[in-house]
Specification:
Blueprint (H helix, E strand, L loop, with lengths): L8 E2 L9 H10 L18 H17 L6 E6 L2 H13 L5 E6 L2 H10 L4 E7 L27 E5 L1 E2 L4 E2 L12 E4 L16 E5 L10 E6 L16 H6 L9 H16 L2 H21 L4 E2 L11 E6 L5 H10 L2 E2 L10 E4 L6 H18 L1
Parallel strand pairs: 1-13, 3-4, 3-5, 5-8, 8-9
Antiparallel strand pairs: 2-10, 6-7, 9-10, 11-12, 12-14
Helix pairs in contact: 1-6, 2-6, 3-4, 7-9
Bound molecules: pyridoxal-5'-phosphate (PLP).
Pyridoxal-5'-phosphate binds next to α3.
Length: 370
Amino acid sequence: MQNQNPRPFNFSPGPAALPQSVLERAASEMLNYQGSGMSVMEMSHRGKLFMDIYHHVHQSVRELLKVPANYKVLFLQGGSIGETAIVPLNLLGKNTKADYVVSGIWSTKAIKEAAKYGDIHLAASNEAAWNGKAAGTYLPPSEQWQLRDGAAYVHYCDNETINGLEFLTMPLPASKAVKVVDACSNLFSRPVDISQYGVVYASAQKNIGPAGLTVVIVRDDLLDQAHAHCPSAFSYRLAADNDSMYNTPPTFALYMAGLVFDWIREQGGLAGIAAQNDAKSALLYQAIDASSFYSNRIDASCRSRMNVPFYLADESLNDAFLAGAQAAGLLQLKGHKSVGGMRASLYNPTPLAGVQALVAYMQDFEKTKA
Ligand SMILES: Cc1ncc(COP(=O)(O)O)c(C=O)c1O
């Protein structure tokens, strides 16, 4: 199938594709934002024009995610890797105990970082085969998480971007444990019940906007338990008390996020976006499962809607597959170096037409090479 889209389809895991209309709007406002004679990048974050942008972005997060009144929405820097340190620095003050679930590469990084700051316990992991499922192909069922009484929180990753594993339903919904979730690659991809969490964090470069911004949602009662050494720039309390402007926020990334949130509203909000995401990933998984030329190794109960890793049965064809895809206008399909193979990331802006084009290309490639 020929790509009718004037731009190629981009399956990057992040920084990822942005909606074309968002890029066009930003381009049209680049040199002279609302008659100010300045681009958003060139204006004070304390001036009215930027404060209006900030309030719009802040309100959009609250509305789209239905953030309850007893939570703060913070905009920080440092990304999700930064949060792997910023979370323990903010939550492990007097109480140094935290539990971590390991389910892939990002949660492994998180537990290693946290171990520098506290008494960290491995609550569950998918590193060994379990119940007939190979290591790394399933998510540890929450009934088996070994949570310690008195731990400050339990941390897990909602969508393992590299491995392609996603919690399709929330683990531990009824548990009193304070849940801290790395939602870097699936926040804003579906409706979510924020009231179930203590802290939710996501860097922007998947479903929110350009890199450089981290959205952090924190329950009010968790704002004041920071370690004395927590850097001021990363203090949840200081950020909350200063409209996330204790230091200069990533202004252009915030502006772009606001445009992306407007675009999400045009798609029917998170319910509309979720329906699109379900349809896109279902189409690709069906195509993979229908073929013996391609395979996806992840257990059906936790296949990510956002990141679909797949392998060619004959891996010597990988380079030819990627070169053909590039020529067909299907970009950035190479799997992460740690797992190999291919990966199609299907974040919100990837249209269904992009997945249809990918499936058509995969079927053509199979016909010529099988
Ligand atoms: C699930 C997850 N966590 C953490 C990170 C790290 O994010 P950052 O590079 O913004 O620090 C990523 C990046 O891809 C991710 O996908």
